[in-house]
């Protein structure tokens, strides 16, 4: 079966590189959650996308803050960018999204993969959310399907469905740059975990190989970096060629079965992310908090002995 969306993504990247039609990318790294937020813009029209924003959250006090997000807003205003997209590569389990705050201040349509509905169904059950919590993705403005166009100003863009870490993961290819969420990490760190509800190591391998079929020079922008042993700096940009040559989990030559065995063994050693409970409850609602109770306070729940 030919992969028509992938073929279009490859053609788009080759054309973008030939014409120099490439987005400018500025990244902001949140050391508390190891998350890279990317702001990509078309240098001609200044139309821009914010990809995977972070709301500061202190789990001890339950207090949120927009300190980090406001730095991004300052950069966008200073550069005169026009935000057209607020993009989530998936429903994150390690940080709260700041998309509603950024959208309020800057606009842009909030988009995520259409399989968010599966994630909402799974976590809606886990958190015993009431009927006020819609499981139809209606908290988002756009639900992306594989192969959908995601243009940014004069730059063409395409969304690729890359499930495995979660069912709803999407990669966004804009010009020559691919924003790949939680699939691959830096070559010396490997790949994203695949053991959350709905995750699947075999699916993750296939998604990763799909991304690695993009041209070797394709710029890859990652969602996280944790530094690898022996490395002192956080890094969130690499290329397809570097991943194929050196990724410790999925360099060229690693078979699907080898990857699944390795990924599954590693996942069995990992604890749940520190902010999983608050993150998922907020992010499954498009970054919005649950409705306030009758005293006006909003609460997050913690299901005991469930995950
Ligand atoms: Fe994630």
CATH class designation: Alpha Beta
**Cα Rg:** 19 Å
How many strands, which pairing sense, and closed or not: the largest β-sheet? 6 strands, mixed
Helix coverage percent = 25-40%
Give the CA-based shape. globular
Can you describe this structure in just a few lines?
Pfam families: Lactamase_B (PF00753). The chain is of the alpha/beta class.
Structure description:
This is Metallo-beta-lactamase. It comes from Acidomonas methanolica NBRC 104435. One of its GO terms (molecular function) is metal ion binding. Helix 5 crosses helix 7. Helix 5 links the parallel strand 11 and strand 12. It contains eight helices and 13 strands. It has a six-stranded mixed sheet with strand order 1-2-3-6-7-8, covered by helices on one side. 47% of the residues are buried. It has 307 residues and is of the alpha/beta class. The mean pLDDT is 97. It has a single domain, classed as 4-Layer Sandwich (Metallo-beta-lactamase, Chain A). The longest helix is centred in the N-terminal third of the chain and has 16 residues. It is globular. The chain binds fe (ii) ion. The site of fe (ii) ion has 5 residues, from loops.
């Amino acid at each position: 079966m030919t992969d028509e969306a992938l073929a279009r993504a490859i053609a788009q990247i080759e054309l973008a590189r030939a014409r120099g039609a490439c987005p400018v990318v500025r990244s902001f790294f949140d050391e508390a959650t190891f998350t890279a937020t990317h702001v990509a813009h078309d240098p001609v029209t200044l139309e821009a996308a914010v990809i995977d924003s972070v709301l500061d959250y202190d789990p001890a006090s339950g207090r949120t803050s927009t300190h980090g997000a406001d730095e991004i807003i300052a950069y966008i205003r200073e550069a005169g960018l026009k935000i057209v997209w607020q993009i989530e590569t998936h429903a994150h389990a390690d940080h709260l999204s700041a998309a509603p705050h950024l959208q309020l201040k800057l606009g842009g349509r909030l988009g995520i993969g259409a399989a968010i509905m599966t994630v909402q169904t799974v976590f809606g059950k886990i958190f015993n959310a009431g009927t006020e919590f819609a499981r139809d993705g209606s908290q988002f403005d756009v639900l992306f399907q594989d192969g959908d166009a995601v243009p940014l100003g004069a730059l063409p863009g395409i969304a690729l469905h890359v499930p495995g870490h979660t069912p709803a993961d999407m990669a966004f290819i804009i010009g020559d740059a691919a924003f790949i969420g939680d699939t691959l990490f830096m070559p010396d760190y490997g790949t994203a975990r695949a053991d959350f509800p709905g995750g699947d190591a075999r699916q993750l391998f296939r998604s990763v190989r799909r991304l690695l079929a993009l041209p070797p020079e394709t710029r890859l922008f990652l969602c996280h970096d944790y530094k690898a042993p022996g490395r002192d700096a956080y890094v969130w940009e690499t290329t397809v060629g570097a991943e194929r040559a050196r990724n410790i989990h999925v360099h060229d030559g690693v078979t699907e079965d080898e990857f699944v065995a390795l990924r599954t063994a590693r996942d069995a050693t990992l604890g749940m992310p520190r902010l999983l409970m608050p993150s998922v409850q907020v992010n499954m609602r498009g970054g919005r908090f649950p409705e306030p109770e009758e005293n006006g306070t909003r609460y997050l729940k913690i299901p005991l002995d469930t995950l």
